[in-house]
Predict the structure.
Amino acid sequence: MKTTRSSKIFTKPVNLYYMLIGSTLSLSILGVVMVFSASSIYSLENKGSTYAVVLRQIIFLIISIPLAWVMSRLTLARWKLIARFGAIFAIALLASVQIFGKSISGNNNWISIGVIDVQPSEVAKFLMILWAGFMLAQREHHGVIESNVIGLIAPLFVLCILLVLMGRDLGTASVFAFILAGLLWVSGVRLGIFTGILSIGFAGIAILIYTSPYRLDRLSVLINPFADDQYKSTGWQPAHSLLGLASGGFFGVGLGASRQKWGNLPAAHTDFIFSIIGEELGLFGTISTLALLSILLFSIFRIALRSHEPMVRFVCSGIGCWIAIQTILNVGSALSVLPVVGVTLPLVSYGGSALIATYMGIGFVIGAARRDPKIFEELKKSDLKWLR
């Protein structure tokens, strides 16, 4: 009986919708709390107020939630119209960085707009997923063979990757590459061809690391970031990230009580927020965060599998791959099992561009769930009108 009830929680269609909404809001609230805690010292020293950074994050969240609601109400016909030009808009955004770009932490992938800096590559990820989903769906309708599928979407993804690499941002370029790999996988590319493409991708990343001294240094510190010749240079971030995680114990040192955020761990509220969660909330906090992200990803991929519309299936899968790879890269960097690549933790890390773009993607998935007949029938019976 217990097994039946637990299985229904994960298989009942409407529960996927509740999981999607619940995990998104929970991660967003966790993000605001942890951004406030992780950024308080940095914010006071650089902005003159402990609340400066978190207030911006709250404003970004206030923008993101209504935007996702509006996008969840768009018809599939509207999405197809937007998707037709998605690649053009994405490439234009990435090209604009090369003209008007601003360098932050060595990466030239930002554009300054008044008092805020925006990262066009975040929105470009979503637009490329939309476009690729539309193109793959068109080809599926016509029964095109796999090799043509690769030629259909790979060239423009490669162009996006090259534009991002021109700004020296290997982390974001890797996200684009893994989104492409995920889309090719769900499109049914044969294993041999897929393995070959993946091998070429990893070889390309290896060459980019080997030919760049600072990237090679970041890779070398994975062995021992506490080594005497590494600790005070490229080993500093991964070493203090591990110190934060190790000192948290099971329940952490307490919310707001992190010692690493006092100047020891740069980018504590962005790239290394997972370490602050581990230090302040302990193993319980990190497992809870990963559980929420797992629920979010599970609901996205299950909604994708339920859809009978090819474009919805491809786009939802691409959004799931996007969130998954960013989670892996961010957490891997915090645990020092992957090189530091400067990728945010979805919905949790500080960053307006990343938060808004992620909510745009989630808005699409919410709309896909609402168009599912079984889910919508159950939602109409709900007393919570705002969830419908």
